[in-house]
Amino acid sequence: MTFFLLLINLVFAQGQNACSQHNPMSSDVPACPTTGSTLLSENYPIMAATVSDYEGGPEWVKSYVTKVMKAQPQKPPQFFLHVTPETYESVVAELRKQAPSPQVADQWIKGLTRVEGNNRWNWQQDYFDNFYNPKTGQPVLREVQGYGRHGDSYTSMINSTAKECNIHAGVLLENAQYKSGHSGGNIEAVNGLCLLGADHFNNNEWDSYAKSTCTNMDAAVKTPSDFLKVGHTDEMFKTLKDPSQKPPCDFALAFASPKKGLEVLKGNPDGKVFDFPGVSGEELITRVRQSGYREICAAYTASKRSQNLPPSPGKTRSGKGVSQLLWDLSITKAFAGVLSITDPKVENLYKELQALDDMEPKSVEERQRLLARKNEILNKIQQQMKKAGYLKSKAKMDEAKECLEMTNKDLAKIIESDKEFKDFNESVEKAIQQFKKDLLAKLKQKYPQCSPKTLDIPDIYQGMMDYDKQPASYAMGTGLSLFPNPTNGEIVGNTYIMPEPVNPAFKADIDNQIKGLGLKTDYIDTHFAHVQQGNLHCSSHAIRYCRPQGGKK
After folding, report:
1. CA end-to-end span of the chain, whole Å?
2. CA pair distance 466, 26, nearest whole angstrom
3. DSSP character at residue 521
4. Could you give the 3-state DSSP secondary structure of residue 313?
5. In this structure, are strands 251-257 and 454-458 parallel, antiparallel, or unpaired?
6. What are the residues whose beta carbons fall under 8 Å from the beta carbon of 342, sequence distance 6 or more?
7. Residues 116-145: tens digit of each pLDDT
8. What does pTM read for this prediction?
């Protein structure tokens, strides 16, 4: 948007907050869906947005606010910030620095509201979801019953949104007993279709919650989010905007694809696995030793330290998940030999670990109990390694440097050499592709005039298989994305703001596909959320609106 148009908007918006610029009756606002569901997908404009500094600190909030402002500059949203006074002031300073003029900066700052409350819950997507009033197009916020962990965040926010933007609370999203699947991150939309993930629901729980959430069951679609540990739809699917199409066909669909992930790795064999822009020193060491990176790095460094590792137990039916398997190989088989630990206590721990490796669990639950015990043992062995001096700072630095040399070819080899790792991703791919087929069929029924583009976005997941099933399938509730979820981003205007992908080959492919739709791309470092099994979309909430059917300015 040109600086001239920004100044024009300032003339009309002088002295008003950002919400005053968003009129649901305006002719340029897309019409509300007609499916009976009152959820909106991300091809609709944003009236307001919420974010917290509790986990990501001021840097995360500053990045999110400034990037959203720049992506929707003509009519920026009103921000409701669950932050400390210090973070609020740092955001104000950042906007003054980033705005194209002092006048624009002043208007942007009027779009900031600090939520006064006792809690600053990070996962803004999960404790409520936003719907719309069919008569007015105005957003309506509905709290997830039983979520509980957010304290007074919702109440404090509603007090602010009602006052500043006339956005009020709707009826509760009811459930008999809260489960992760009830969270807002598991509830997504595609132009009036209501997408609700299957995760954590038993018997008729999905049907019951779909009635409460989707209103019209004919608009409800079940997603295969049950393979995920957190189990939310936004970790494997995203509705994108397609600016080349007119409403109601101005949307595209992005699906996480392990198959595409492996293809990208093999197609760029010499590329580096890890790239953390702007990160160095101790922070770099910390990152590659966290989350799923740690296990992959451990497998890689172990393979380089020892040429005599036995074949991976994952080549046969295994009682381990892939992450634990790789950690076992690195710690117990490679490093134990390097350290030559002779302490009888450590030897006994190692023998117990080997005995656990040989056990054949009879259920997923038993496998998880075995993993818990093995984690205890590995932590004790790690303490001995620290005492032996192996985990001192220099050793950590050496290991991190070695891991940063890993290529995509190395990672592809790790994936394909372990049966469970490979099987899990193939099983996930099969489920997501079936979901794609079902969703497209449903959309064709509702919108026969639309032929939405689909994108297979590269991703790799770590998790367990359930080999007791016939045919074998992923074990429910065990999957985690190796890299930050590329579908866990936010459409703002014609820009897709998403997590920094970490893998350069993944980033290039994602960037190319998104820009192929006519969208811009922007990235935020969300490592703080990724290591806690969430990401950008989970840590924010864009509140959207629409024009009522028949409504006009």
Report:
1. 23
2. 52
3. E
4. helix
5. parallel
6. none
7. 999 999 999 999 999 999 999 999 999 999
8. 0.86
